[in-house]
Design a protein that fits this description.
By secondary structure, the protein is α/β, with parallel strands linked by helices. The chain folds into two domains: 5-112 and 179-315, 3-Layer(aba) Sandwich (Rossmann fold); 120-171, Histone, subunit A, CATH 1.10.20.140. It is built from 14 helices and six strands. The protein has helices at residues 16-26, 52-57, 74-90, 102-110, 120-133, 135-145, 147-152, 158-171, 199-216, 218-228, 243-250, 256-279, 294-304, 308-315; strands spanning 5-9, 29-33, 60-61, 94-99, 189-195, 285-288. Strands 3-2-4-1-5-6 form a six-stranded parallel β-sheet, sandwiched between helices. Helix 2 (52-57) links the parallel strand 2 and strand 3 (60-61). The longest helix has 24 residues, at 256-279. It is globular, with a radius of gyration of 20 Å. Mean pLDDT is 89; it is low at 178-183.
Length: 317
C-alpha cells in the first residue's frame, strides 16, 4: 500500500492538536508529535499536550519519552520519526506529524546538515562575549550572517546561537547551505499549514491560551519541576518559552504581571519565527484555522488526494 504522510504544521496556538484529533475521528490516523518540548514528561500544561482522553481516542507518539533532565536532539528525532512513520504505514494507518518545531520538520525533509565538530576555543570565546554583551547581541550578529537561521532561534537561546555562529565562522557557510541532500521523503507527502488568516487573531489566541495555562496550574507545574530537577539552568526545559519566564518569577527575578507579559511576548516571537519558516517552504497548502469550515476543508483535501484512495478504501472510511 502506498500510504501517504501528512505534515500538519503551524504556529503555536493555531489549533493543530485539535485539528489532528478531529481528523482521527474521520480517518485511520496515528499522530506523531513534532514538538521538542512535548517529548518531556511532566511538561504538560505549558506545552499544551493532548489530553489523556485525546491520547486514548487516537494513538500518539513521541510524547513523554524523556525525563526533563535528559536531552533530545534533532538527530534522535529524525531517527525516531522515520522509524515510526514506517511502522504506522505498515499498519495501514495515516501518519500525521503534528507540531511547531520547524527544525524537526526541516531535518525530516532535507536531512541532517554535515556540520563540523565543535571548537572548544571558539566556544569559550563566545561564552565570554555572551557574559559581557548578552546573547541578544550575539543573536543580532547571527542575523547579519545567517538571517534565516536567526529567525528560527530565540534571542536568548545561547546554545543554538553559539552553534550557528560556530558553523558560520568555521565553514564560511550557514546551516541551510550545509544541509546535505541526505533527506528527501520516500513516501507521498501532504503538507498543510494551519494558520489564522488575521495575525491579530493569532496574537489573541496566544494570550488567551497562556492565561488559560495559568488557570490550569502552570506555575505549580514549573515549581514541581524545579523541585524535582534542581539541576543547572542549562537544562533544555528551562530554556523553553513560558517555562523560562515562569521559572524567573518563581526565582523572584520578576513579578507575576511581568512574567505574564514576557511569556506572551516570547510566544508571539516564537510564532513569528515559525511563520517565517513556513513561508519559505514550497508545496504547502495553507488553511485558515479561524474559518468555521476549516476541519471540513481539510477532510475534503485528504479525501481528494490521489494517494489516499487506497487507504480509505481499505479502511472503509
Amino acid at each position: 500500500m502506498t500510504t501517504p504522510v501528512l505534515f500538519l504544521m503551524g504556529p503555536t496556538a493555531s489549533g493543530k492538536t485539535a485539528m489532528a484529533c478531529t481528523l482521527a475521528k474521520r480517518f485511520p490516523v496515528e499522530i506523531i508529535s513534532v514538538d521538542a518540548a512535548q517529548v518531556y514528561r511532566g511538561l504538560d500544561i505549558g506545552t499544551a499536550k493532548a489530553s489523556r482522553a485525546e491520547r486514548e481516542a487516537c494513538r500518539h507518539h513521541l510524547i513523554d519519552i524523556k525525563y526533563p533532565d535528559d536531552t533530545y536532539s534533532a538527530a534522535q528525532f529524525r531517527g525516531d520519526a522515520l522509524a515510526l512513520i514506517e511502522e504506522v504505514r505498515t499498519r495501514g494507518h495515516l501518519p500525521v506529524l503534528v507540531g511547531g518545531t520547524m527544525f524537526y520538520f526541516h531535518v525530516l525533509l532535507y536531512g541532517l546538515p554535515r556540520l563540523p565538530p565543535s571548537d572548544p576555543y571558539f566556544r569559550a570565546d563566545i561564552e565570554t562575549r555572551a557574559r559581557r554583551e548578552g546573547w541578544p547581541m550575539l543573536h543580532h550578529e547571527l542575523a547579519e550572517v545567517d538571517p534565516r537561521r536567526a529567525e528560527e532561534i530565540s534571542p536568548n537561546d545561547g546554545q543554538r546561537i553559539q552553534r550557528a555562529l560556530e558553523i558560520n565562522t568555521l565553514t564560511g557557510k550557514n546551516v541551510r547551505r550545509r544541509s546535505a541532500v541526505r533527506g528527501g521523503t520516500p513516501w507521498p507527502l501532504m503538507r498543510l499549514a494551519l494558520v489564522p488568516a488575521i495575525r491579530e487573531h493569532l496574537h489573541r489566541r496566544i494570550e488567551a491560551r497562556f492565561r488559560r495555562m495559568l488557570e490550569l496550574g502552570f506555575v505549580s507545574e514549573v515549581a514541581q519541576l524545579l523541585e524535582a530537577y534542581p539541576g543547572p539552568s542549562e537544562l533544555p526545559w528551562l530554556k523553553m518559552v513560558g517555562y523560562r519566564q515562569v521559572a524567573g518569577y518563581l526565582n523572584r527575578e520578576v513579578g507575576y504581571n511581568r512574567m505574564m507579559e514576557a511569556s506572551i511576548a516570547a510566544t508571539r516571537r516564537l510564532a513569528k519565527r515559525q511563520l517565517t519558516w513556513l513561508r519559505n517552504q514550497s508545496a504547502v497548502t495553507w488553511i485558515d484555522s479561524d474559518h468555521p469550515g476549516a476541519a471540513h476543508g481539510v477532510c475534503l483535501y485528504l479525501e481528494s488526494h490521489p494517494f489516499m484512495a487506497e487507504l480509505l478504501g481499505s479502511k472503509g472510511a
